[in-house]
Amino acid sequence: MSLDKMKDLHLEGKYIKPETKEVNGILMTKLISDNWDKIWNFQAKPDDLLIATYAKAGTTWTQEIVDMIQNDGDVQKCQRANTFDRHPFIEWTLPPPLNSGVEKANAMPSPRILRTHLSTQLLPPSFWENNCKFLYVARNAKDCMVSYYHFQKMNQGLPEPGTWEEYFETFINGKVVWGSWFDHVKGWWEIKDRYQILFLFYEDIKRDPKHEIQKVIKFMGKNLDETVLNTIVQETAFEKMKENPMTNRSTVPKSMMDQSISPFMRKGMVGDWKNHFTVSQNERFDEIYKRKMEGTSIKFCLEL
Ligand SMILES: Nc1ncnc2c1ncn2[C@@H]1O[C@H](COP(=O)(O)OS(=O)(=O)O)[C@@H](OP(=O)(O)O)[C@H]1O
Prior knowledge:
alpha/beta, Rossmann fold, 4-stranded parallel sheet, two-stranded antiparallel ribbon, about 40% helix, binds 3'-phosphate-adenosine-5'-phosphate sulfate, transferase, Sulfotransferase, cytoplasm, P-loop_NTPase, EC 2.8.2.-
């Protein structure tokens, strides 16, 4: 059963902030942790495409782009279901009768587009064994932190973030669900040339969507004409997706996601961190960033 059917079950109001429990040293919700055997043993197929991201890095945006490409720019087809039902979120686990990501993925016909926030060391091994295609999207740490903070405030499926000052510490220490941003991004960056990985940046998609979408089209082995490409650029723009009930999570009950606290499609910009970080937080963050990212060649853009 999908989340947007929750109303029918009168489950509203029963959700409380979840407990957390680590998997191999990485924080997860307890529901994910308790379901770990099933997640770890998930059977990927060679024609699966996995959208992998750290939380809040532009997953939903990428899902919409990929779905539009797979459906040759057919807007109606992309309206068939919510993004969370179109592309199973493999590790996501909610209390029954809501289906887990593994159950949804197992029920889906091929070719499957799946999504995950798992780091490389937690990804079910069958993805590597089957040499699946991975589309990794990275977003700069500061904007991810801001976006994740607001998301944890409005989403009952994730822990209470505390104050911004408290959250700042939690995030840099990697004590958020799905673990450290630094380890996640470094892990995927380091293996990008060993597997079929298209590595994109949120900031690049924002600056030049047409160019980045063309890369995705090529990676998916599709050949779409200019008109279709332009339609995809238009339909996946932030303003469009903010109004689209199949992407903006407005069908998720308020008891689960309270969009009056913060909308799911919040700002969709590069550099909102400047409205949150104090000067001293910024200095401290830059120092920690330098230390934690030492030795990696990855470069992020922090403003457009
Ligand atoms: N089309 C488009 N263009 C630009 N930005 C977009 C778009 N769609 C979603 N977003 C922004 O992406 C952030 C949500 O990221 P995710 O989809 O990865 O969230 S989640 O992890 O799946 O909950 C969240 O970022 P913030 O606005 O900074 O909070 C969304 O607004």
